[in-house]
Design brief:
The protein is an alpha/beta fold. It contains 19 helices and 16 strands. The structure holds fe (ii) ion.
C-alpha cells in the first residue's frame, strides 16, 4: 500500500480490475480447511435455528430486554460504566469489515488481501454478523478463530441480527469474556406463550473447545483483547470510535441511548460503527431509540462532531457524503455501508439514481453494471437459460446507464445502445428507472426476497467475489478511509484494488 506507486487497476478503471478477467486462483485456496462445510440457508435445520428472527418481527424484538440483563451482568463483574477502552496512540490504523462468518470460500477469499493491505494496522473491527446463521459459540472456531488466525492484532466487533439469534451468548463469550445466559424470553401473559415456547435458547458453550480454538489459532499475546460490552467506545486522542448494538430489528434500548448521548458529547471527532447502516440503498434508516429519538439525530447533531457512520448488514459497499448543519458548523458526515466481508453479495444494481446525495457523489462496490452482470449469470445458470439471461459486464453496464440515466464509473463507448434483451434482463432483475425506487415490471427475486432463499442463489464460490473491507488511517488531523476490493484472484491479493478513497479532516 505504498503511496508513491500509481494506484492498481480497480473495477472503476477496467474489467480486469473488477476481476472479470480470468487470473491465477488466489492463495486463499491453501487456507481453506480440508473440508469446507457446505453452507445452505435452505436446510430445514438452519431455518429452524433462525426462527428467533421471525419471532422478533412478529412478537416484538426482545433484544433490548435481553441486553439489559447482559449489561447488568457485565456491570456486576466490574465493567466501567462508560464502556470505553482507551488507546494512547494519536496516529494509528485499523481494518473494518462486516458480515463475515459463513466459514466458506467467500469468507476465506478476503483473508490474504486483508492481511496484505492490513499490514501495520493496530486492530480489526467486525461490523455485524460475525457468525452465520445464528451466532453460536460452537461456530466460532471454524468461522472466526481459524480464518483470522494470521491477523496479529486484536479483533473487536459489534453484533448483528444473526449474532442475536443465539441471544448474543456466543458473542458475549468470545468478545466480552462473559459466560452467562442472559436470554430467558421476556414476553409475558397468555399472548407471550407462543414466542416463549418457540424462542430458541442459546446453545451450550463448550468452554474447552473454545479455549482450544483460541489457543490453537489466535493465542498470541498481541491478539488478545476484551470488549467492555456489546456496545463500546475506543477512545484515542484524535478520534473516538463508538460501536453500538442494534439487536435484531435495528433499534437500541434507552440505557444504550443515554450512554450513546454521553459518549458522543464533546469536541472530539467521532466515528460510529453500527450493525445497521443509517443510509443504505438510497434510503434513510435513522435507528430508533427506545423512549424517543434516533441514532441518526445523535450523529447529525453538530455538537457531537461525527465524521462518519459505518454499518454492516447489507453485503456490499456504499458511501453517501451527506452535508449537515449550516453556517460555521456545516460539515459532511460520510454514511458508509461496509458489509462485504465474507458472506453472500447483496445486489447494488437495484439502488436507484440516488437522492440521499447527488448520484455523482455516491460510491458503491460492486458497480451496478458488475452487480447486474453477476446476477444475470446466476439466473442464466439457475434457469438453464444462459442465452436469455447472461449479460457481459459491458452489456449490463450499458443497460444500467440507459435505465438509471447515470454515467457509470467504468466508461464504455457511449454510442453503444443497449439491446432489447439486456433492457429486459435489467428490468426483471430489478434495475429501477431513474430515481424510481421500484421498477414497473414484475421482478425476479434479487433484493426483497427473504434472505434464506435469496442468499443461496447469490452465494457463489468462484471469482470474482466482489467482497470488500476498509482500511482506516488516523492522524492528528485526518481520517483516511479506503475501500479495498476482493476479487479472489492472486493478482489482486498483494495490492487489492482501491474502490474508494476519502480523506476527512478531523478538526
Ligand atoms: Fe449479514
Amino acid at each position: 500500500m505504498s503511496g508513491t506507486q500509481p494506484p492498481p487497476a480497480s473495477s472503476r478503471t477496467s474489467e480486469e480490475g473488477a476481476g472479470w478477467t480470468r487470473g491465477t486462483p488466489g492463495s486463499f485456496e491453501e487456507l481453506l480447511p480440508a473440508k469446507v462445510p457446505a453452507f445452505s440457508w435452505r436446510r430445514p435445520g438452519v431455518l429452524w435455528r433462525s426462527r428467533n428472527d421471525v419471532l422478533a418481527r412478529l412478537f416484538g424484538d426482545p433484544s433490548d430486554a435481553i441486553r439489559r440483563r447482559c449489561v447488568e451482568a457485565l456491570a456486576e463483574r466490574g465493567a466501567p460504566a462508560a464502556f470505553t477502552v482507551h488507546r494512547p496512540a494519536t496516529e494509528f490504523s485499523f481494518l473494518l469489515m462486516g458480515d463475515t462468518g459463513e466459514g466458506d470460500r467467500s469468507q476465506y477469499a478476503v483473508v490474504p488481501p486483508l492481511l496484505k493491505a492490513g499490514a501495520g494496522t493496530d486492530f480489526l473491527v467486525i461490523a455485524s454478523d460475525v457468525i452465520y446463521p445464528t451466532g453460536d459459540a460452537g461456530d466460532y472456531p471454524a468461522k472466526f478463530f481459524r480464518p483470522y488466525r494470521d491477523y496479529p492484532g486484536p479483533i473487536f466487533a459489534v453484533p448483528g441480527n444473526h449474532d442475536w439469534y443465539d441471544g448474543l451468548r456466543g458473542f458475549l463469550r468470545v468478545f466480552c469474556d462473559l459466560a452467562a445466559d442472559c436470554a430467558p424470553p421476556p414476553w409475558r401473559g397468555p399472548l407471550g406463550l407462543v414466542p416463549r415456547l418457540l424462542w430458541r435458547r442459546p446453545g451450550e458453550v463448550d468452554e474447552g473447545a473454545l479455549a482450544a480454538a483460541r489457543a490453537e489459532h489466535r493465542g498470541a499475546p498481541g491478539q488478545q483483547a476484551s470488549l467492555p460490552g456489546p456496545y463500546w467506545a475506543i477512545d484515542t486522542p484524535a478520534l473516538r470510535i463508538i460501536g453500538i448494538d442494534t439487536g435484531i430489528t435495528g433499534g437500541i434500548d434507552r440505557d444504550q441511548g443515554r450512554w450513546l448521548r454521553e459518549v458522543s458529547a464533546g469536541p472530539k471527532a467521532k466515528l460510529l460503527v453500527t450493525g445497521k447502516p443509517l443510509r443504505v440503498d438510497d434510503e434513510v434508516r435513522p435507528g430508533p431509540i427506545e423512549g424517543g429519538g434516533t441514532v441518526d439525530e445523535i450523529v447529525r447533531d453538530p455538537a457531537h462532531h461525527y465524521v462518519a457512520a459505518i454499518g454492516g448488514d447489507i453485503h456490499n459497499y456504499q458511501r453517501y457524503p451527506v452535508p449537515v448543519g449550516e453556517g460555521p458548523g456545516a460539515r459532511v458526515v460520510h454514511y458508509v455501508v461496509a458489509g462485504g466481508g465474507g458472506a453472500f453479495m447483496h445486489a447494488t444494481h437495484t439502488i436507484p439514481r440516488t437522492g440521499v446525495v447527488p448520484e455523482d457523489r455516491f460510491r458503491c462496490y460492486p458497480l451496478r453494471g458488475d452487480s447486474l452482470s453477476r446476477y444475470s449469470k446466476l439466473y442464466g445458470r439457475v434457469t438453464r437459460l444462459p442465452k436469455v439471461f447472461e449479460l457481459t459486464p459491458e452489456e449490463a453496464t450499458v443497460a444500467v446507464r440507459h435505465r438509471l440515466g447515470i454515467e457509470p464509473a467504468r466508461g464504455y463507448d457511449e454510442r453503444i445502445a443497449p439491446s432489447r434483451r439486456a433492457l429486459f434482463v435489467a428490468a426483471v432483475l430489478g434495475v429501477p428507472r431513474g430515481d424510481r425506487k421500484r421498477p414497473r415490471l414484475l421482478r425476479l427475486p434479487v433484493r426483497r426476497m427473504p434472505q434464506r432463499f435469496r442468499s443461496e442463489l447469490a452465494d457463489w464460490d468462484r471469482p470474482p467475489f466482489f467482497k470488500n473491507f476498509l482500511r482506516l488511517d488516523v492522524t492528528e488531523r485526518e481520517l483516511r478511509i479506503r475501500c479495498l476490493g476482493v476479487t479472489g484472484w492472486a493478482e489482486h491479493e498483494a495490492d487489492p484494488p482501491c474502490e474508494d478513497d476519502v480523506t476527512i479532516p478531523l478538526r
